[in-house]
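Pipeline run #58 for the internal structure catalog. This entry was flagged by the ingest filter as a single-chain record with no existing model, so it goes straight to prediction. Upstream metadata was stripped on purpose; only the residue string is passed forward. Reviewer on rotation: M.T. Logging verbosity set to normal.
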Amino acid sequence: MTTDTEFRKRSVQCLSPAGLHRMAYLEWGDPRNPNVVVCVHGLTRSARDFDALARTLCNQFRVVCPDVVGRGDSDCLADPMHYVLPQYLADMVTLVARLDVARVHWVGTSMGGLIGMFLAAQKAAPVARLVLNDAGPVVTRISLERIATYVGVAPTLRSIEEAEVMVRAISQPFGAHTDAEWRLLTENYVRENADGSYRLHYDPRLGEPFRAHLPEKDLEFWEIYDAIRCPTLVIRGAESDLLTRATCEQMTTRGPKAARVEIPGVGHAPTLMHDDQIDIVRDFLAAGD
């Protein structure tokens, strides 16, 4: 079976209560390969965050990395209040149907992990193996308050250097990265305007439903997690404020009884850009072949 180390840009049409929208995705590897890995990013990130992981996995899998609606190259929604988990879940069901395979592996970071968790919990779910990257059935209030300070805040950035200062500040929990990696993370986070300034890659209106639905206490989805039956791996940043160690430990004893790996020196969330983190994901997924 041939492989492809460069991605192909594709899209699929999805439905929201306000009408149709296009969800863009990147596809790596042999398009005929029935062994598919779907990689879904966090709240304000994009498909390009998985480039390093996809380059490694595409020798063995067909890797599909969507821009969740409102991010990257995907359309924005007509009604920003539809930027919520049920809409994302419906879009991913449409995407899996487009891929024309019975089963997929799922790698989800933060929000992408929650989407995968909800999909895997459904009856006759198509998820064969699930990787939850700093995501689980409890989302702490303190982490949501932190995220609320920047999500949807959309300054005009005069240069890529100014954009990088902002990205380094809000993404400090990602842990140590080289200057080149920080520049790449920044380039994935912004888009250049005609006048040479930069804007966020995502719809700033994402912040509206996020703040409107900010809970008074931790969000808990144990009933969803307990319904998952596929092999599951949880990766936790050792300093994460979103996924606590206590929650992570409990995830190993109930529901799918997830395997657990903790990444030292990282908070929310591991970027899966480094070889040691990539190897963790690859080895778990390969065990299911």
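catalog note: The longest strand covers residues 19-28.
catalog note: The chain is about 30% helix and 20% strand.
status: ready for reviewer M.T.
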